[in-house]
Structure to design on (54 residues):
């Protein structure tokens, strides 16, 4: 696991925590959807950059 994939996975998990927090605070749905798209993209990019797939 290299540094960039680690950073992407950590940022994605941080954004997932933000999604949970925003949902509990009853924030607007559009904001939660935008945050979830960003989290999914970060997690997917981090997982696909792992050297396991090569």
């Amino acid at each position: 696991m290299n540094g960039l994939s680690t950073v992407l996975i950590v940022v994605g998990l941080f954004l997932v925590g933000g999604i949970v927090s925003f949902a509990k605070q009853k924030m607007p749905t559009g904001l939660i959807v935008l945050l979830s798209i960003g989290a999914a993209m970060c997690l997917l990019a981090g997982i696909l950059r792992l050297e396991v797939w090569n």
